[in-house]
Design brief:
- The N and C termini lie far apart (40 Å).
- A hairpin with a 4-residue loop joins β7 and β8.
- A six-stranded mixed β-sheet has the order 2-10-9-4-5-6, with no helix packed on it. A four-stranded antiparallel β-sheet has the order 1-3-8-7, with no helix packed on it.
- With 117 residues, it is mainly β.
- The protein is built from no helices and ten strands.
Length: 117
């Protein structure tokens, strides 16, 4: 059974940073492309970032490019998202998911990120 468990969300002021984690199990994590997606209040799911198997290639939505960094620890079956220079528009529930692009596919229960002063 695929399990994806996100953590690390919280309340942060504009300009602040957070690091999200996603503990994964039930599938071949090392060989799997992984991604982060988010859903802001009242909006549809939005692609954020993805990383290939091996972690050598990363992809970002224009809205987060230069501020967010995706990474993975294959020894721990864990996906990360380092978020810096956060803005109010980053407020959303963040999900980790399986796959390279888009918002479809298995994902976890999400972790809330709120950027507010």
């Amino acid at each position: 059974e695929v399990q994806l468990v996100e953590s690390g969300g919280g309340l942060v002021q504009p300009g602040g940073s957070l690091r999200l984690s996603c503990a994964s199990s039930g599938f071949d994590f090392i060989s799997t492309y992984m991604k982060w997606i988010r859903q802001a209040p009242g909006k549809e799911l939005e692609y954020v970032s993805s990383i290939n198997s091996g972690g050598l290639t990363t992809y970002y939505a224009d809205a987060v490019k230069g501020r967010f960094t995706i990474s993975r620890d294959d020894a721990e079956n864990t996906l990360y998202l380092q978020m810096t220079s956060l803005i109010t528009e980053d407020t959303a529930v963040y999900y980790c998911g399986i796959g390279l692009v888009g918002t479809a596919g298995p994902r976890g229960q999400g972790t809330q990120v709120t950027v507010s002063s």
